[in-house]
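job 3f2a | input accepted
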Amino acid sequence: MRVLLVDDEEEFITALAERLVLRGIDADCVTNGMDAVHFAQSRKYDVVVVDIKMPKICGLDVMKSIREKDANAKFIFMTGHGSEDNVRACREAGAWDCLFKPVNIDVLIEKVLQAAKT
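job 3f2a | predicted structure (118 res):
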């Protein structure tokens, strides 16, 4: 299983990637949506964990761009701006799940594993 983590908070996303790797999950991380789209053009990801609100390109646009190449990728959104409208928009757009920051690593891993199996 291969996971792409996308968040503009570099320390957060790097630490998250390290924790996934320690648990045997192949994880790449990037700090912006454009890099996520570029990574997904040359690599296949089973699950993409992406922040909803980022500068330049938001998480929903990242999902749309990656899904043009890989319709099977599962998306789990993270948000520190936990409005029901954001969560609803993500689910309506086809997100597998939406988690609120701060993200519990055990919950995230469970969700990633579940998403990858579907």
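job 3f2a | The chain has a mean pLDDT of 92.
job 3f2a | closed
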